[in-house]
Amino acid sequence: MPIINDKERSADKLLWFPQCEANKVATEELLWNLRHAALSENDWFASSPARPWDDGTIFVAMDECVIGEHGVVDLCHSVRTSSIIAKSELLRVEFEALEKKWKRETRHLSLVSKKIAHPSYLRIIGMGEPAIPLLLESLRDRPSHWFAALQAVANADPCRIDATPADARIAWLEWGASNGYIDRTYV
Amino acid sequence: MGISTGHMSKAEVEIDFPALMGKHYYLSAEDFNYNCLAYAVGDLSNWWEPPKQAGRYWPDGFPPDTTIRTVESIVAVFGFTVEIDPMSVPDTEAIAIYADGNDWTHFARFSNGHWSSKLGEGHDVENIDIADLEGAMYGKIAKVLSRPKRIEQ
Q1: Measured between beta carbons, which residues in chain B are less than 8 angstroms from residue A174?
Q2: What is residue B135's three-state secondary structure?
């Protein structure tokens, strides 16, 4: 049973979540609801990013996601990103412990290929997409060779093949900011 | 150069390199931008490791492997061609190659009268004895290659 099984059109074409206060799109409530939906087993909304509404409803879901006719995918992408960010918070403590162990035990290795074979690094990859915000934060604040992990969990590669580590870091941070995982204050 | 990734204490470095305990050496800030091979050839902007990919550099025209043979041919391009006794003090610039079997694991550089090395993503260490880095982490010194001085005409 989906949590969100009701929608309502109004003159302003706003999508109301049942848990939201009537006639009011409160950002905090909406974000709470999105997180709740993302963490629930019934998060069909977050897991169905390409699910258009047949009647062409246009959504205004949150402050940073005002969209137009073609914006359903944008909304769903934003919801998906919010879902990933919400899940990442549940993994933060474990991630930081794994990061610390990985760095401590591989810091002096001369080959990245050996560093990324460490069990802690592999466990981080095993976290999947929710590791993306955490990896990007680490890359931003405590740079290290997270590029292989990011490629694995994001299924993307924004870097040129000849990118230096510094270039690759910037490329990933820009990718992360463009996709809503981190803010742009990373320079 | 690059972005400092933190600063370990000497005590933390000596966990991996116990032979450094009690020795007088210097540590730089940590830097993930370059590794020991890059440091040895003087490139502080790249991480030298095959194969070439984002975040990793490998010079064109050389096999993408970590054998001593291949890296010898690479450092030869930089003039390091004469093998010398690892126990001797070089009278010119030199590179020490550490290895585990046929594959290199680490490098140190002799210049300005002392040995120094980049420890993975970690610190540069300066004023070391290259034998102090031998052990479980880097294996043994395989060979030391010096760069002959140019003969002034």
Answers
A1: none
A2: strand
In chain B, what residues touch A103 (CB-CB under 8 Å)? 121
What's the CA gap between A132 and A111, in Å, rounded?
23
More confident residue, A55 or B102: B102
Contacts of A133 by beta carbon, 8 Å cutoff, 6+ apart: A84, A85, A88, A176, A181, A182
| Complex ipTM | 0.89
- Dist. CA A6–CA A42, nearest whole Å: 14
pLDDT category at A87 given cuts 50, 70, 90 is very high
Of A106, A111, A159, the CB nearest to B66: A111
